[in-house]
């Protein structure tokens, strides 16, 4: 795992660090706002926040090219923002409005963007994993060099369909990167209480799929591992597994008081491993940016997020006539 | 012994608790049911009382846990497998449909599968397309499965206790909207046999058949119609398989008019099957066509207003009853 010092020594440009800072901060502030709107009753149903895990998607998106695909679970807001989907459209879907990515019919867990090659947004734990291999299969069939990022959690890693998929993905050398976002908890059950085989990427070895564990709180480590995985896939060597060791600060969903872990554990992660603070240090300590520079970015992001909330409140409710649309092709 | 008013989820917990105390073969497994006490708090406190061996958290692996439950049942244990949402039970359909449902027949009656899958379905609060379905028709369609859908705390407890004493696979389908509802439940021992419908309200003008969360809506509709002097009989089958056709047909013979309410989508639903049974066996009793009020043939949309519009509400039931009574002509188009 790459540590802070190691990362600081690497030749990362000011621009690149500022980009990560901005993208991670956008996710965090967006999610905080979503949490507020949920508390105000403007967002209903389920709402699974990505706060704490920002470095994973931001680092991996930095490895993508046009045409690459991504698919994930219900904890999907961060992935959408990181791949360039519009904050307004995401927030308006959370409030169930016409201006949302799924016209208010999908909700927090179910959004898609063909333009950004984002294939959801899936509510059944692990179900996106075979779908992700299928997306990659289509690219291989068409003969391009696109790669599919298939994200899933440590909980999903215990679903049987993941292993059927591993087998086929390696057998057919599909260009898919399986990204296990290991945040330590499957809903309320810790990894250790879910399996004796806690090194999750290692299970791929049984199917011949290489992989590694990565410090998912360090965006530079994520980026470095992502580039390696992408190179492997694009070269036609089949799938790769990245097990991102990360942490979610909030509960599984807004209705989870997270009694299954201690407050100290959460506070320790925030204090010692926070992905945004890490990049902030990398910018401020060597003088690559000033407090004022970062404050300006904070303000800029605050404006984007506030505008998305306004849009999500103002966008009209979908018409009842929409009940029978979008069911059949 | 005295009745008390308790919640549906508490009634379910009492059933599990009493049967675990009475029979060492009963155990329960599921996602977050032990340490967290279950997402709907049905199993709260059971871990402390019965320990990890009998109250066990599972990984998120529905196909596996349903299969393990079926296997344990075949070997004579009495497992309750809690599946968080009925939508997730789709991962275990192989074990339910191809294994559990057929085992008794395939073994010439020598093998039994006392397997209970407790789960919940239905709409409630915008949990969207993959967490809101009413899928009872899928199980109802399969010979060999018993399908139970309690609407009240009293029924929930009595039916679950009965489920744990019989020997066939039971799909015990609760409703997310009912867990916090209250009802009178006796303190003492009782069970409710399968295949016994309950007349939730007696009436003489029209028979309203409903189950699960549609029962409170049928009752509310009946109360509203009573203000206009319309006497509605609400029949709750409680178990869809086995189905108490006797009670249904007796009610039809009395009222001559039928409305069936289901939250599930209309196409291929249980309501259609009940309607076909009634028309086949009681056609000459009927004074009006049987009317079905059902969910629209659409996945459940996220937006709360659309969600509400996609499943039957009290005014829809009231309108359907007026329609079969020719009470409100001309009727609104469906």
UniProtKB/TrEMBL annotation, chain A:
Transmembrane segments: none annotated. SUPFAM superfamilies: Thiamin diphosphate-binding fold (THDP-binding) (SSF52518). Residues 23-320 form the Dehydrogenase E1 component domain. GO terms for molecular function: pyruvate dehydrogenase (acetyl-transferring) activity. InterPro entries: DH_E1 (IPR001017), PDH_E1_Alpha_Subunit (IPR050642), Pyrv_DH_E1_asu_subgrp-y (IPR017597), THDP-binding (IPR029061). Its EC number is 1.2.4.1. CDD domains: TPP_E1_PDC_ADC_BCADC. Keywords: Oxidoreductase, Pyruvate, Thiamine pyrophosphate. One of its GO terms (biological process) is pyruvate decarboxylation to acetyl-CoA. It holds the Pfam family E1_dh. The keyword DNA repair does not apply. It catalyses: N(6)-[(R)-lipoyl]-L-lysyl-[protein] + pyruvate + H(+) = N(6)-[(R)-S(8)-acetyldihydrolipoyl]-L-lysyl-[protein] + CO2. Its cofactor is thiamine diphosphate. PANTHER family: PYRUVATE DEHYDROGENASE E1 COMPONENT SUBUNIT ALPHA (PTHR11516:SF60), PYRUVATE DEHYDROGENASE E1 COMPONENT, ALPHA SUBUNIT BACTERIAL AND ORGANELLAR (PTHR11516). Heterodimer of an alpha and a beta chain. The pyruvate dehydrogenase complex catalyzes the overall conversion of pyruvate to acetyl-CoA and CO(2). It contains multiple copies of three enzymatic components: pyruvate dehydrogenase (E1), dihydrolipoamide acetyltransferase (E2) and lipoamide dehydrogenase (E3). This is Pyruvate dehydrogenase E1 component subunit alpha. It comes from Stagnihabitans tardus. The gene is pdhA.
TrEMBL record, chain B:
Keywords: Oxidoreductase, Thiamine pyrophosphate. The keyword Electron transport does not apply. SMART domains: Transket_pyr (SM00861). Its cofactor is thiamine diphosphate. It comes from the Bacteria. It holds the Pfam family Transketolase_C. This is Alpha-ketoacid dehydrogenase subunit beta. GO terms for molecular function: oxidoreductase activity. Residues 6-181 form the Transketolase-like pyrimidine-binding domain. Transmembrane segments: none annotated.
